[in-house]
Design goal:
Elements (H helix, E strand, L loop, with lengths): L1 H88 L1
């Protein structure tokens, strides 16, 4: 009978230890999950900022391209006028 009582106490101790380890593991998993979420949130914010910066840069490049095209057309117009004035003088 004494052996049976001792065995039950040992089994109970194992059960308590197992529950404690499960709780500890669950806490650690939850901490890691929270850290991952925070990390992904930070990465998403950074990606959003980069995307916004890229969109702004693309808009600036498109505007610059339009300006260059306009200026190029004006240069061509002035060159034609200069050629015309030059040929009128000859």
């Amino acid at each position: 009978m004494e052996n049976e009582t001792m065995l039950k106490e040992i089994l109970h101790a194992f059960k308590l230890h197992s529950e404690h380890m499960d709780e500890k593991l669950d806490r650690k998993i939850n901490e890691l999950r929270d850290e991952l979420r925070a990390g992904f949130t930070d990465v998403n914010k950074r990606l959003d900022r980069l995307t916004a910066r890229q969109d702004g840069t693309q808009a600036d490049l498109a505007e610059t391209n339009e300006t260059v095209n306009f200026l190029h057309s004006k240069v061509v117009q002035h060159e034609k006028k200069l050629h015309q004035l030059n040929s009128d003088q000859e």
